[in-house]
Amino acid sequence: MAPRACAVLLVSRGGAGVEASLEGIESAILKQSGGRPLRLLRFSLPAGQGRDDRAVLTRALVDLASEGHTHIRVTGLFVVPGHEYHAMRRTLRAACEAVPGIEVQVSSPLLSTCTSLEVMVKALLEGLPTERLPEEAVIYVGHGHRAGRCDLHYQALAYALNRADPHAHLACLGGGLSFEALRSEILSQGYRRVFLLPLMMSTGGHARRDMAGPAPDSWQSRLEAEGLTCIPVFRGLGEYPGIATWIAGQTLTRDEESVNQPG
């Protein structure tokens, strides 16, 4: 009898621009699977969490259970263990109540441990555009949270990036690592050219509007108004080989925490 395929569910936030990250992560998962059968599925969460998410997730779990899968591995494409990650776990736990006999294992978000932080720093810096000169500024643009709930995670990454490359910086659209504070630092250091890169899985919405949109309040527009040359790089986190490889390894390990246990 052929071995049953391992079921892997990749969960992303709805919206454009995440396709390339998904493809990079799927490719890394297939490469690390060692040729064993894999059942790869994608699930896109709409804006906001609620009963619709639970209903759709329940249907996905029911379909997998009907195929004979009792252990399902879920990886959410989230950078930090913030609101969306925990909402996903709650939604999965609720969905599991309607599908007895299965175990759902959820991988931790990307920026969860010291080891994953080191992986991120190495992958991000190795993935910089070749045309970037060593003395030119790089700004990674994180999502953040308006109430600063994940500031410590982003602060740790900002420190590690800047320690590895003094010209690499991080600020967020929300929270304590503000663009205003970083903007003053960038201007005081006399940079002439700045590279802007999203610290997100998606290169849509926030990257093309808040980071590098044509509006006068985008980060690119505000820096260019100060006389700097800005070069936006639209590359999602899943497109960095080192990050995709890390996520794949976490997805395929059986040591991750389960949101439920089979009854």
Q: Could you explain the architecture of this structure?
A:
It is a single chain. With 263 residues, the protein is of the alpha/beta class. It contains 9 helices and 8 strands. The chain has helices spanning 19-32, 51-66, 83-96, 114-126, 151-164, 179-188, 205-211, 219-224, 241-252; strands at 6-13, 38-45, 71-76, 103-106, 137-144, 168-174, 193-198, 229-232. The strands form 2 sheets. It has a 4-stranded parallel beta sheet with strand order 2-1-3-4, with helices on both faces. Strand 1, helix 1 (19-32) and strand 2 (38-45) form a beta-alpha-beta unit. The protein starts with 5 loop residues before the first strand and ends in an 11-residue tail after the last helix. The relative contact order is 0.18.
Task: Name some characteristics of this structure.
4-stranded parallel β-sheet; 8 strands; single chain; alpha/beta
In terms of structural class, how would the helical and strand content be classed? alpha/beta
Low-confidence stretches: none
The best one-word shape is: elongated
Counting DSSP H or I runs of 4 or more residues, the number of helices is 9
- Strand fraction equals 15-25%
Strand order of the largest sheet: 2-1-3-4
For the biggest sheet, the summary is: 4 strands, parallel
Kindly report how far apart the N and C termini lie.
27 Å
In sequence order, what are the helices and strands, one letter per element? EHEHEHEHEHEHEHHEH
Number of strands: 8
Helix fraction by DSSP (H/I, runs of at least 4): 40-55%
Tell me the radius of gyration. Answer: 20 Å
